[in-house]
Amino acid sequence: MTSSDPATITAILLAGARPIADPLATAAGVPVKPLVPVAGEPMINRPARALLAHPAIGQLVVLTQNPEYFADDPATAWLASDPRVRFERGGKGIASSLLELMEKADLPFPLLMTTADHVLLDAAMLDQFVAEATGADIAVALVEKTTLLAHYPQSRRTWLKFRDGWWSGANIFWFGSAKARPVIALWQDVEQDRKKGWKILSAFGPLALVGALLRILTLRGGIARVGRRFGLTARLVAMDQAEACIDADKPDDIVLIESILAR
User: What is the pTM of this model?
Assistant: First the structure.
């Protein structure tokens, strides 16, 4: 699929809140992090516009515990009035909310999921991800450490170390068919440990864990191996743009993002 293909992808934009108060939201005086201003507007606006502007996206589902926050805010009310946007209520966990949404809403595949704090998401990132993820049952976007540090050496990320590099998530996911459901269910089991790489790897079996620790597995090979375990095609999309893994997670991130947008 390319950017000229018909709008067939369902985009899911995660705009929920954690169980505890988010420091960015508290500091900004807003009820949830997606409403925190970045470069003069709520951070959710930029990824939402990027998704809706992409010709391959047919509809946008905003998944959040509190749709009313966005409808009541003048700066985000446009989302509630756009006919291609619909709000769905989520729960506490991303994976559990996604599984519930897939069951009750009967969303058409493929699904592309990203987050409201992915402020720098743009057409080029979506073009690359859609092109490389198409045909897979599940795909995940990552950025290799050298790609990021070549442009933003001051940026701090969480890295997973493999033989083919150090990788950080870019918060873009692809679910190409219903075969992805068992992997999402596994994600649900380890979701609380998503920042602890070894626990995530150990959920895929001791071979994956030992292989990662000894650096005898590439991440590309590991993801493909996980796919075979579940009887599906799983794919890593190594993003070309360093900005793909810079999200608005900390005050320093917002300063960096605003400087990038100002350029």
Answer: 0.89
